[in-house]
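OP here, attaching both records as promised.
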Amino acid sequence: MFVRRVFGRMLLAAAKSEPSATGAANARAAYNPLEEFFEADRSQDEDKPVVYGRSWKASELRLKSWDDLHKLWYVLLKEKNMLMTQRQMLQSQNLKFLNPERIPKYVRKSMCRIKHVLTERAIEEPDPRRSAEMKRMINAL
């Protein structure tokens, strides 16, 4: 655990301090993919509460196409990973994770509802082979 924490901090520090030689590379260096795992606009010292969105309703998800639900699933997965990474980082530094209810209340609930809507579509599928294939894919999520 200690090795993972130290290695993670070193990796993040190295990613933030990596210099670049050209102007185009500077623009690219400003965007670091590792920073997507952390909320950039939030500091621990702010006293005002931050209002976040709500979970998706099943009725809203039923109106979405298969591709839209697929994209939304990965957006939610990325958000879940970001929140869990941030929670782990703050716990390792003995700091409080603000709004811990965001993971189960908004992200996981929306992901469960997406699976529910996709399962409904798989059940309604008239072709039994395609229905079984869809159910296997949904259960693998």
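Record two, same layout:
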Amino acid sequence: MEEPPQLELGNFEVQNAGPDTRDEKTDEVDDCPIEEVRLIVPITDDPTLPALTFRTWFLGLVSCALQAFCNQFFGYRQNPVYISSLSVQIVVLPLGRLMAACLPPKVVGLEGTRWSFCLNPGPFNLKEHVLITIFANSVYAVGIITIVKAFYRRDIHPLAAMLLTQTTQLIQVSLFRAMHEKEKRPKGGSTRLQFFLVVLATSFAYYIVPNYLFPTISSISVVCLVWRNSVTAQQIGSGANGLGVGSFGLDWATVAGFLGTPLSTPAFAIVNVMAGLFLVVYVVLPVAYWSNAYDARRFPIISSHVFMANGSRYDVSRVLDPATFKFSQAGYDDAGQINLSIFFAFAYGLSFATLAATLSHVALFHGRSIWRQTKATVSGQTGDIHTRLMKRNYAAVPQWWFHVMLVLVLGLSIFTCEGFGQELQLPYWGVLLAAGLAFSSRSPSASSPPPLISSPG
């Protein structure tokens, strides 16, 4: 009986039958001119490696669901804990290798068709690892749904919420390479994987102390303990609602809260962020607050709430029409203007400033190289070794795929905002404006955004 042809789950790779005939001298010259890329990205590729395998789909879907749940669950803490795709990238490696060692190399046929797939096509490889990490991305728009339900206390149609999350979803290369390079365990030492498992176990054992057994040590303020009844001391010393002078924390989420994850951030970027944090929090903010700029002393020094002119909480329901959930000018005139804490006002202003600053920085420091690359791309010059590898080993994705996806996502976005009784309060022109801003902030020659420390704004 003829065996059914084997097919990976959605694998559309075109394999290159010809051997790679480049010699070492050619490899040495024919490389990326950017040193950072040259050091971490290999100039070789094996197009025969399976990518969209059973392991990819299983670990990818499970990691995506678990990461989204954990980030949403821990995101409501005062010091939110964020599990990045870097964590998933590290965790799935031993799981993938475990599946490669335990799963049988059995061919599973799809009933009613001639197609089949293999549970274990071979060793867990780098391409599977990359795809699983791409799966693990948190849903950005859940925050919008949370605001509608928790802050405005309104219901949102489940289909509208689902479409919102789907239409707003528009790598650590060196770590991938390090993890998949063959390595011998040094005498008396450990491999990278063994070191990771030790760190994982010890960090979990410690992390459970400040987050479950003893949450008080997340932020300890000596100033607040000494002057318990002083409002000024609370504003200066509180690590949760003040400037945090004289405070210290034993919770990693508190210590690294200003940056997210310093483990994957270059030292110069950490210093840059810390310098900006120091100038804003310990210079600009105290001067503005204690000089009573814009009546700042009527409100808490650090708060994300909105306030009335007398310092009480703002009643948002007074400025919204309860029937249509639209802004009521008469209600706003009656309630008065919205007031923010001085820190929240600076946070909003600086967030918008980073958008313009990012464009200015890229234009001044990288404008020439972007323009050269753009002209080379338009003229069809593919000087980059990695681009030539992709073109030689794989079939190009048709451009109309991207055009159809763009039109489909924009159409669904407009339908989500204009339909369902306009629950999301964003008109069609707002969707187009947001798409235009996103398009204008991208490099003309880039196919994907660079791995930034954090997103502007």
